[in-house]
Each structure stands twice: as C-alpha cells, then as structure tokens.
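Journal club side-thread
Mid-discussion, someone asked how the predicted structure for our own chain would compare to the paper's figures. Pasting it here so we can look after the session.
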Amino acid sequence: MPSDLIHQYMRIDHLPQMWCPGCGNGVIMRDVAVAIQELIEDPDLHFNREDFVIVSGIGCSSRAAGYLDFNSIHTTHGRAIAFATGIKFANPKLHVIVLTGDGDCSAIGGNHLIHAARRNMGLTVIAFNNNIYGMTGGQYSPTTPNGERATTAPYGNVDRPFDIANLATGAGASFSARGDVFHARETIDIIKQAIQHKGFSLVDVYSVCPTYYGRKNRKGDAVDMLKWQRENLIPTARYYSMPEGERAGKKLIGILSINDYPEYTEEYAKVVDAVRKKGKG
C-alpha cells in the first residue's frame, strides 16, 4: 500500500493490522481507500472527505472501519446496515459505506440486507466474502460452497450457498456487482461506480482466507488461492468474449445489474414535504 495512502486515510496508531498473513481483507480495505481517494481527488466530482461515513459490524472484515481514518462506527453483529440506514436518514447527503463479511451480512444480518435493497436505501455495501467465519473459529457461512469443509462441517457442508450479489439484485438493489482481491484495479473501479450510484449498491468482493478456509479445504497457501482467482474469476469484457464452452466453472466479476429505481430517502423527503405543505394550507 502506498505510504501516502496510509498516512492520508489510515489511523496509523491502529496499525499494523491484525489479519492473518495472506488474508485478502487488507487488499479490499486498500481498494476501498483508493476508490475514495480517487473520487476525492477528481475535481469534476466534488467529493469531500468529511461526507464519507464507514460503518461495520462484527467479524474479520469489520475491523477495517477502525483502520480507515474517516467518520466511522463499529456496530454489533449483523446490524451494520441497520445503523447505516439510520445515518443515511439523519443526513441523506452523506456517502455511507458499509464494510461487512459474508456471515455478517447474509446470515444474522440477512434481513437488513434484503430490506435495505428492497427500499433502495442510498448505501454502498462492500461484502468481504471469504466463504467462512474466520474470526470465530472457521465455522461454515452462508457462502461456503456445497461440499466444502469447516469446523462446523467436518464432513462437508450440505447447504446450498448464497450468491450475495444475485441475492441483492433479487431483493431490489439498484446496483449489484462482484469483485475479487486478485483483480484489484477492476475492483477499485467497481467500488467507485458503486459509491457514485444513487440508491442501494452492493459489491460482493471475493477475498481469500488461507488460515481457515484454505487450509481446511486443501486450497494451498494465499498465492495458490490468488492464482485460482486469476484463472477462474473473469472480468466482464473478457468473460463475454470467451466461447461459451470455456465459461464452464468460471465466475463473472464486474457489474451485474444497474437500475434507476427511486432512492428511498428522497422519496421519504417528498412525503414529509407534502405533509408540511398540507399543514400550512
């Protein structure tokens, strides 16, 4: 990570970070910081640092809110989107970014996820998706692939996994995308677009967890897991240029859907304004 990025956008006194060697979460945190930096430094966009708020829940990923030097709040397990909703309601002009894990947002926080998407709240949710509960001992999560092992699934997970990006789209999110830690530049650009989008934006970012998920499932070390991402997670332009037969087993990363739905706080403000005008009449 460039030193100027660290000194501008990180809480130096909280470093070094606590993630395991090879963990992808630090890469995603860097991607978020770079995306914000590039938006702020673009004179045509008029983004201000003080207008960003970082919200997180509980889990490995959620420690990122403590490292990023912005207005931030570290909330309870699964409730980051609920807290973020309150912040956005209190001041709709803020750019509220939720940093959450696959377990945090799609298990205990799943209800908040689908209803924020349904309402099209003006939030940007970045899901650090490492397919496991890393902080609490390697239990399987809602995104652990079928048949993969975890401390709570020693003989293989029998659940069908969630696709968080498609889940958000189905629930009504007006922006849904996927990124990963290998394709860093593409992921930064996706996050920038998500922040600029008016309405609920979700970016499901595939991380790597060599300590629990990788070791338990014989995926190799962090380098091996990144090589797998390089070969199997395909950016949009290249994915659609591939012969259909070569797409088997590959996953698309990039923007999955964009829709122009009314943003919730704006619609709510219209109701408030109408009531006020009626009262004055």
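Post-session note: Residues 2-280 form a domain with the Rossmann fold fold (CATH 3.40.50.970).
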